[in-house]
Amino acid sequence: MRALAPDFTLSTLEGQKVSLGEMRGKPVVLCFWTTVCGYCRIQMPYLQEAFDQKGGEVRFIAIDLGESEPVIAQFARDNGINFTIALDQDRAVGDAYNVRYRPTTFLVDKEGVIRYIKPGPFSSTDELLALLEGL
Q1: Neighbour-count burial of 128, counting CB atoms closer than 10 A to its CB (0-12 exposed, 13-18 middle, 19+ buried)
Q2: Domain that holds residue 102
Q3: CATH assignment at residue 20
């Protein structure tokens, strides 16, 4: 698979802008999710643990699909999520990535090429970390 990840610029929960194109040089974990998705809720601690271990080497972005900022912010606080959460209010980025299931996670290498797509949740932090070793 040699598909270039579609570029995007989104607002983050902190009111900043995040752009995939500006992250070249480091691998990126992109997870499309919502707070009402049970499998997304199960996976979020795995993403947080992987971020805690690999956050210096790999960028982590959870892209929420269309929910309100207060709902997302409360979820992040309640669950100790401290990696980047981006807001895809009109779901245009999700559509560009052809996201049909939540969660769907894309692993993008440092050149911006999609190396792995995981529809559904990871079964553990170790599963995600093992895939990151290949990036």
Answers
A1: buried
A2: 9-133
A3: 3.40.30.10
